[in-house]
Automatic annotation (TrEMBL):
Enzyme class: oxidoreductase
PANTHER family registered for this protein in UniProt: BILIRUBIN OXIDASE, CUPREDOXIN SUPERFAMILY PROTEIN
Reactions mediated catalytically: 4 hydroquinone + O2 = 4 benzosemiquinone + 2 H2O
Domain of life of the native organism: Bacteria
Protein name in the entry: Laccase
Enzyme Commission code: 1.10.3.2
Gene3D superfamilies reported for this sequence: Cupredoxins - blue copper proteins
Organism of derivation: Thermoflavimicrobium dichotomicum
């Protein structure tokens, strides 16, 4: 079944209105439900899950420093939309099949409101996980302007809940960003990019078994999920009509496993102005943008003087990354189309500033602790390969306990063949460098022997980050300061199939 490209308009995601708002705080209620939605005009409507009756969920927009309270409400059916593997940690038969907990990815929040994977709850809060503490989450938003996103984080079924549709944007704004005169209003468009596969009847396809099936299990977790269509804002290969002027796009890779290397087939530059954690110091003009799952990039595309042109955003990242197959240019090598067909409604006075603001660097000598942490792959009793952080499972005792206010450097030593997007809750970090090393020698001697010079972060990563690509055969170093909250958080690989099957660990700020 081959769907036509650029048959449907790009949906513009609605901004959620609060239930109440006054000087001191803002209050939202957000319901999760199951419903049908058209994901492509040639497909039957697809049953999906979403927030407030939409997939992706509506965008939540807040001011820096605004106190926001959100009651996340699970109104989902008791039966899951997708196949569950009960051998996965947290998903055994002793817990309800459908359970949810929401994490605002990249937010610095108190632990009780962070969406801890075992703080899940069911419909009507009838059953709750062992770490559940409250119905209404509190977000203080002590952060600068940045592009965050919210998604489900329930232990053992995150990959299924997010794939079913539980994801949306959470955007923090501030005065400084407004003063820069960037494209705004209808010229600022968040884009959430995901891959999916469909059954003939239009329903979501998610594999019940890996390529080498496990005969003892009816349903088995798969090592990764690679879809055969690309959706932007919940539509397969959409088009967007634009005016011949500058537009700001907030790009988010919300796929389970797939990496994207995005380019414009016109050969023009993308002007990147921000990373996961907000604005960079200077904008950069780049031919391509690499996004691992959960990474964001804030870009400006200039359509001036391109009247009548159609420009396609393409993707050429192999899947799985980096050792998989290159994408078929006719299908997953295509993301969406821009049509410069709208008349200019007013003179474009927005700018791409030459300087966006200061970005203080964390100094290596300020670090009070260095941690060496391996990324490992091993085999389980069914012969399935699965991934670990520092060779430990989710339920093993906590080994990372940074002190409140302290600065640490983490060395991620990748002993696997995959690139892993590693996400650390609570903090933003800066990437120091990556350096090739001898993996086989490390496995024998447990000593790092570098095989080449250190590689500085790519220009597009030089800003505040909350997710970093840890590449195979490399040691990736990042530096971060822990705070302003203490308590229990997690760090994990953001390939959701890895995260769900043991590649996640708790840490505690003391």
């Amino acid at each position: 079944m081959v769907l036509s490209k650029f048959a449907d308009k790009l949906p513009i995601l609605p901004v959620l209105k609060p239930c109440r708002k006054d000087q001191s705080h803002t209050y939202y209620e957000v319901k999760m439900t199951e419903f049908k939605q058209s994901l492509h005009s040639e497909l039957n409507d697809t049953t999906v899950w979403g927030y407030e009756g939409s997939y992706p969920g509506p965008t939540i927009e807040v001011e820096s420093g605004e106190k926001v309270f959100v009651k996340w409400i699970n109104n989902l059916p008791e039966k899951h939309l997708l196949p569950i593997d009960y051998t996965v940690h947290g998903a055994h038969l002793d817990v309800p099949e459908v359970r949810t907990v929401v994490h605002v990815h990249g937010a610095s929040v108190e632990p009780e409101s962070d969406g801890y994977p075992e703080a899940w709850f069911t419909k009507g809060f009838k059953q709750v996980g062992p770490y559940y503490t409250k119905k209404v989450y509190r977000y203080d938003n002590y952060m600068r302007a940045c592009t965050l996103w919210y998604h489900d984080h329930a232990l053992g079924i995150t990959r299924l809940n997010v794939y079913a549709g539980l994801a949306g944007f959470y955007i923090i704004r501030d005065q400084h960003e407004r003063s820069l005169n960037l494209p705004c209003g209808k010229y600022e468009i968040p884009l959430i990019i995901q891959d999916k596969s469909f059954n003939k009847d239009g329903s979501l396809y998610y594999p019940k078994q890996p390529e080498k099936p496990v005969p003892e299990l009816e349903t088995s977790v798969v090592p990764e999920f690679i879809g055969d269509t690309i959706l932007v804002n919940g539509k397969v290969w959409p088009y967007l009509e634009v005016e011949p002027r500058k537009y700001r796009f907030r790009l988010l890779n919300a796929s389970n496993t797939r990496f994207y290397r995005l380019k414009l087939d016109s050969g023009q530059l993308l002007y990147q102005i921000g990373t996961d954690g907000g604005l960079m110091e200077y904008p950069i003009g780049v031919q391509e943008i690499m996004l691992a799952p959960a990474e964001r990039a804030d870009v400006i595309i200039d359509f001036t003087n391109l009247e009548g042109k159609n420009i396609i955003m393409t993707n050429d990242a192999p899947a799985p990354f980096p050792g998989g197959d290159p994408p078929d240019p006719d299908t997953v090598g295509t993301v969406m189309q821009f049509r410069v067909t709208l008349p200019l409604s007013s003179i474009d006075t927005s700018v791409i500033p030459s300087y966006l603001g200061p970005l203080p660097k964390l100094r290596e000598r300020s670090a009070s602790k260095i941690r060496y942490l391996t990324l490992d792959d091993i085999t389980d009793q069914y012969g399935r390969e699965f991934m670990l952080l520092d060779n430990k499972r989710w339920d093993d005792p906590i080994t990372e306990a940074p002190k409140l206010g302290s600065t640490e450097i983490w060395y991620l030593i990748n002993l696997t063949n995959d690139s892993h997007p590693i996400h650390i809750h609570l903090v933003d970090f800066q990437i120091l460098d990556r350096r090739p090393f001898d993996v086989e020698r490390f496995k024998k001697e447990r000593v790092i022997h570098y095989t080449g010079p250190s590689i500085p972060p790519e220009p597009q990563e030089r800003g505040w980050k909350d997710t970093v690509r840890a590449n195979p055969n490399q040691v990736t170093r990042m530096i971060m300061k822990f705070g302003p909250y203490k308590g229990l958080y997690v760090w994990h690989c953001h390939i959701l199939e890895h995260e769900d099957y043991e590649m996640m660990r708790p840490f505690v700020v003391i």
